[in-house]
Amino acid sequence: MSSTTVDAPPTTPRNTRGRVILASLIGTSIEFYDFYVYATAAVLVFPTLFFANSDPTISLLSSFAVFGVAFVARPVGSIVFGHFGDRIGRKRTLVASLLTMGIATVLIGALPTGQTPGWEILAPGFLVLFRFCQGLGLGGEWSGAALLATENAPKGRRAIYGTFPQLGAPIGFIIANVVFLILSTTLSTEAFLAWGWRVPFLASAVLVIIGLYVRFKLVETPAFTRVVEKGEVAKLPLARVFKTSWRPLILGTFIMLATYVLFYLMTTFTLTFGTTASSVENAQAAADAAGKPFDASSFVPGLGYSRNDFLIMLVVGCVFFGIFTLVSGPLAERFGRRMTLIWTTIGIAAFGLLFVPLFAGGFVGVMTLLIVGFTLMGLTFGPMGSQLPELFPANVRYTGSAISYNVASILGAAVAPFIAVALWQAADGSPALVGNYLSLMALITLGALIISRETRDVEFDTRLT
What we know:
Helix 3 (56-87) crosses helix 5 and helix 15 packs antiparallel against helix 16 (337-352). This protein has helices at residues 17-44, 46-49, 56-87, 90-109, 122-150, 158-166, 168-186, 189-194, 199-202, 204-216, 222-229, 237-244, 246-275, 280-290, 307-335, 337-352, 355-359, 362-381, 384-390, 397-414, 416-426, 432-451. It is built from 22 helices and no strands. The model is unreliable at 1-12 (pLDDT under 50).
């Protein structure tokens, strides 16, 4: 990818609809599967395997800190892969991002743990490195997949096509958690901690091979082909996008903010809160059964669900994420991206105020919270596949949309689990402040949407800086 040459205009026909849908969907499904495999392990096994500490809260926060490393890497990936995506094309860049993510995930699965003699320091260090590489790959993956879909979409259907790469998020999440669920129910706790947790990471190799096969069959998108034909390929896409599109960069970042906060609260925080013991007595009994030390002074109560039960609940909720991701496409075509997102963001702000009554409502209340939260997630995440690319001209579109998407990941997702745990502790086990945090982030996003413009009818293939 070091070459600065560009692909010649393709002589083959356009990508077929089925090929576009499959290539954009399978790539993001694999990428998000890889990413969520770590997110699940960060809660379930990594605090014990890589960050053993007498204080379980410190171990959990250490694991979340490494979880956040990938979000720091994502803007770097957006710059690196965005450069090549705008210089040599979408197809080859998407292949490289998939390889980066996939190889890093497999290596995590083969990594000795911090309990291995001689690896007490090396293991967490390599975990940080591989986690960084995961974020690097995902930083370039999403934008390329979104452009692959939208730049091949028929007129008036960009938002619908843009939902297909977005659908990879719930699919990847469901697959990752189902795999963990199967392993944790079929293996003993000892076997799961000894080797079972590695299987989802190592299995990523098979998925990557399938994804590469599909993507190698693609031809370049019509929009990038026209950029090449007109001699408008940006020599330095990063400099050009900051010079000509700085306002869309800022707006796009804050438009994505609430989406990121919502998703990582609905997955990572709820899993932590839901599976934490509901009383000191239960926590002490669980620690005694596992032969682990327990510090009652630092204990913060949760809901007390078993790990497997709550994973099933999350998977059920995530089905609604997938359904409403698809529903959001026709809504964004009919009512516009901006108006669809404004009403959804108002819903997210209101939803944050319902954390306390829903979490306190027993199984029905918690299940309602998961279904409503993931429904809102689908409605806000789906239109982003067209909203962010439409903010930028074709010759800096990969870089611009990738930077906005991934800088938002730092402001929203990277710190969300950490802030949520801190707020949960500060409120002595109540999720009230966590819900308020979500509502505040939604109001910031709402402000960005109000001052932005509708992008449904903007020129797409021919618009250049």
